[in-house]
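Key result, reporting period 2: structure in, sequence out.
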């Protein structure tokens, strides 16, 4: 690893960004038209006070050549949150952001079978 501190910051930033996308940030559409045309209209971006304490662990592997970290930590965040909700409440959410209202609606859904 050439820059461990930079890699940690990249991962932690991606997780924050992913939580914002997953839990609160919403781009609104009407049919095929995007209604949220400017970033200032996107509400609910995550901030440091919104997330719990976490630890980033880097695993040393000298057999690999240095590679970019990019946004790899961003990709699984939505799936991780959806899976946690499913494991705890046996309700699936398929729409992001998974706002409190959408989670409450899924929990209150009548007539949906819960997996056993």
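The corresponding designed sequence is given below.
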């Amino acid at each position: 690893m050439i820059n461990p501190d930079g890699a940690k910051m990249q991962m932690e930033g991606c997780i924050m960004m992913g939580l914002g996308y997953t839990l609160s940030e919403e781009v609104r559409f009407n049919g095929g038209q995007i209604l949220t045309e400017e970033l200032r209209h996107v509400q609910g971006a995550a901030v440091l006070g919104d997330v719990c304490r976490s630890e980033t662990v880097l695993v040393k592997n000298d057999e690999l050549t240095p590679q970019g970290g990019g946004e790899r930590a961003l990709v699984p965040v939505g799936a991780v949150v959806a899976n946690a909700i499913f494991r705890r409440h046996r309700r699936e959410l398929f729409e992001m952001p998974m706002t409190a209202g959408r989670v409450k609606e899924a929990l209150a859904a009548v007539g949906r079978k819960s997996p056993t």
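The mean pLDDT is 82. The two ends are 44 Å apart (CA to CA). This case is discussed further under Risks and Mitigation.
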